Amino acid sequence: MSEIKVSALNLVPVKSGEDEKQAIDNMVDLAQHLDELGYERYWIAEHHNAPNLVSSATALLIQHTLEHTKNIRVGSGGIMLPNHAPLVVAEQFGTLETMFKNRVDLGLGRAPGTDMMTASALRRDQHNGVYAFPEEVAQLQKYFGPENQQGYVRAYPAVDKNVPLYILGSSTDSAHLAARMGLPYVFAGHFAPQQMREAMSIYKELFEPSEVLDKPYMIVCLNAIVAETDQEAEKLATTLAQVTVSITRGRMEALQPPIDNLADVLTPAELQMAKGRLGVSLVGSEETVKQQIEKFMDIYGEFDELMAISYIYDQEKQKESFERLQRVMKQVRK
């Protein structure tokens, strides 16, 4: 029996009534709080052309967070590799590793993290980038590897830095790749839970030991909102429901405060969709969330690390939620 590690993901959302600078300040404030609590890692996602998110320049935000924390690992959840030349990614993260030794993670995604027009504006062929993902991950491994395995083009100062790579996925495709390469696998259950059980099973069953790992390392990312009571958590979660519906409406609205009755702002169809999303989220009191995690493992299988994302409008309530989640996870064993 071993303890499940707990980490956090942040998309750096802009809250209604606040601006981009406040969103970045909130990102740092939360990172510092989780650093003090002893969280394992803090990841920042890459999104483009999203007016409600300030996470487009992901590497810059990672550096900013590292500069304002002491121990917590900070990384990307993830860098969307079709948008970037692997050489540039290796140079950036090799530099971060040089500045902040043993505190940098590089999570990698195969999607562009935006719409197709914006992906084209990023000046890489998104279609070829998606198909070239396995080769580009291998290229990054080489850039971060030892001097004697380098080619003519080298990613200084990445050489021999061995920045840890994580494969991100929201379908079964990346599960196969992570298993074949013997790399840690992170599933995006917070927004795409449909193939989660199958993907987790594929990764574990097909995993091939590597120089990085001798056995699978599974991270599951879930929405998590933990409060003193179920009722309070459910009200806080109305912010998440509004985020979910905002995306489907194509509006990309700023984070909204919680409300008493979702039916006042959502259509019946939207209300059902929001409830469906919450069905695979961790929402409730500490005891309720503990039961939800145990039920999750019964259905989906065991995992090594929980990466939580919490769309909570009130900054102090968000920090409290992460405190409560950590207490819960200390009681859960795999």
TrEMBL record:
<feature type="domain" description="Luciferase-like">
    <location>
        <begin position="17"/>
        <end position="297"/>
    </location>
</feature>
<dbReference type="InterPro" id="IPR019949">
    <property type="entry name" value="CmoO-like"/>
</dbReference>
<comment type="similarity">
    <text>To bacterial alkanal monooxygenase alpha and beta chains.</text>
</comment>
<dbReference type="InterPro" id="IPR011251">
    <property type="entry name" value="Luciferase-like_dom"/>
</dbReference>
<protein>
    <recommendedName>
        <fullName>Luciferase-like domain-containing protein</fullName>
    </recommendedName>
</protein>
<dbReference type="Pfam" id="PF00296">
    <property type="entry name" value="Bac_luciferase"/>
</dbReference>
<dbReference type="InterPro" id="IPR036661">
    <property type="entry name" value="Luciferase-like_sf"/>
</dbReference>
<dbReference type="InterPro" id="IPR050766">
    <property type="entry name" value="Bact_Lucif_Oxidored"/>
</dbReference>
